[in-house]
Every structure is written in structure tokens, then in C-alpha cells.
Amino acid sequence: MLTRKNPIRNDNVPDNGEKRNYRFKREERLKGRNEIREVFGKGKRFSCRGARLFLLKNDLPINRVCFTFSKGKLSKGKQVSKRNTLGNSVSRNRAKRLGREAYRLMKHSLKCGYDMILLVYPETETPVKMPGLSDRTTQLESLFSKAGLLK
Question: 114-120 and 64-69 as β-strands: parallel, antiparallel, unpaired?
């Protein structure tokens, strides 16, 4: 049986010999309307092109994260829905998947004990191309370094 080699997973064993778990577990997801509103309301904001990070300290040994999109922006005096800001459902779901995957691969290099919301919005008025995994990883690295979360 043929197996495909994934270059990302070749470094599963850190320097101290223990194996890392790269799963994105259910308890690591920030859920619940009140918790999300609290992070939006009381959290610190960090921005880069195409994404914004909302960050609030929690008293847990893990980070919890939520991925969402901008609700829209005012365009010529009227509100534009989120469907129009990031394209159709396929492109919105792809943007969310890429964000989750980039976070999942980076989560071991982050400090623990924070609730995070990653808000994704289009970089320009008319998106030329959808960013890939490397672009999303670069965005997250920039946001996490601005927030001081990198170990």
C-alpha cells in the first residue's frame, strides 16, 4: 500500500523526545455566544492585512480559539452582508479551514491560557486570489508575535 509523505508532520518529535499531539480538540474551541461576546468586548485587538485577532486571558491551561468572518462593511452608505465580503460558501469554508489548519500547526509554539478569535476579512475590495496555507500561516505568525504569544 502506498502512503503519501507529509513534510509538515516529519517534525512530530520535539527536542526532548516526547511526541506532540497536533489534533485540534473540541475543548480548544471557543463556543457560546456569551464567551465570544466577552472576547469581542473586553479583549485586546491585533491586526494585520486580511485578519484581526481578539485576545482575552482565561484561567485555563489551554488556549481556546474561534474562527469567524467580518459581518460586512459599509459600502456607499449601506451594509454589505458577509456573503458578499468573502465570496460564496466554498471560499468562506476554505478560509476557515486554512485558518484552523495554520493554528493547529502553530499551537505548540504559543503561550497558554488565552481565548482567541480570528476574524478574517478580504484584503481588497475585489479579491484577486484566495490566500493559501502559507499566506494564512504568515498572517497568524504576524498576529501572534504582535500579541506576544509566541514562546
Answer: parallel
Write down the pTM of the prediction.
0.74
Unique residue bearing C-alpha cell 475585489: 126
Q: Which amino acid is at 128?
A: V
Judge whether 82 and 147 are in contact, CB under 8 Å. Answer: no
As a whole number of angstroms, the distance between CA 45 and CA 14 comes to 31
Residues 6+ apart with CB under 8 A from 113: 57, 58, 59, 60, 61, 62, 63
**Mean pLDDT (whole number) for 55-61:** 93
Q: Domains for the chain: give ranges and CATH numbers.
A: 28-147 (3.30.230.10)
Query: Would the pLDDT of 78 be above 80?
Result: no
Residue from 28, 37, 98 nearest 65 by CA: 28
Please write the tens of the pLDDT for every residue from 14-32: 455 556 777 888 899 998 9
When comparing pLDDT for 69 and 6, which is higher?
A: 69
Compute φ and ψ for 47, nearest 5 degrees.
Answer: -125, 150
